[in-house]
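Quick entry between incubations.
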Amino acid sequence: MGKVLLSLHVLAAIVFIGPVTVAVSVFPRYARATSARSAEVVALLHRISRVYAVLGLSVPVLGIALAAHLGVLGDAWVVASLVLTIAAALVLAVVILPAQDRLMGPPAEPSAVATRSATASRLSMASGLFSLLWAVVVVLMVVRPGSTTGV
Amino acid sequence: MTAVATPTPSGLRWLGVASVVETAALVVLVVNLATVHHPLVTSTMGPVHGFAYLATIAVAFLLPLTTGTRLLTLVPAVGGLLALHRARRRTAGAGGTPA
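Done. Structure below.
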């Protein structure tokens, strides 16, 4: 059962978190553009961000189930990963997705272009932070400081 | 976004799937606990229920629903179904146009 959970956990992380990371990092560039095509791209990227964010919830759930199965749920590296995962989820849910919402559709008036650009810049920064948090969690998962499970 | 937004049918379908899985998985877990108590059922349906519970909450917060309906999804076991019922009634009451 442990091997099945681990496989599903890694598979879900690659298939679900990967697209979110790419979509949120590419989104600001297309949100700054004004062509009709970029509006379509932005709509698709927003959809990918939202749908895969929900599917990505399976990754920590499977991770917690796996950690409980292995009896390492209280280990420092697991707790640290969980805290960072919650932080990444909050950045996505509270900062990135609402900012993407605001950047959907064409700019209402020329004066709104500057505000839009500022929102896009903040969104770039939040996207970078999101990717960084995941990178740290992956390193923790691979190195597992203090772990003796050997799985 | 000046008009009051109503969730699209496809959005509500997502909420419906997540809610049904959330409740159904919990029923399976409880029945298993009361009867055969097979560990494989627990370790399979546990994560399914956990994921469905979180997915229900996430979908509710992504859809244009009222705060009350969203918070309803936090109720364990049946929150998603309650929220779905409430959202459907409101959509029907508002004369929701098919998207």
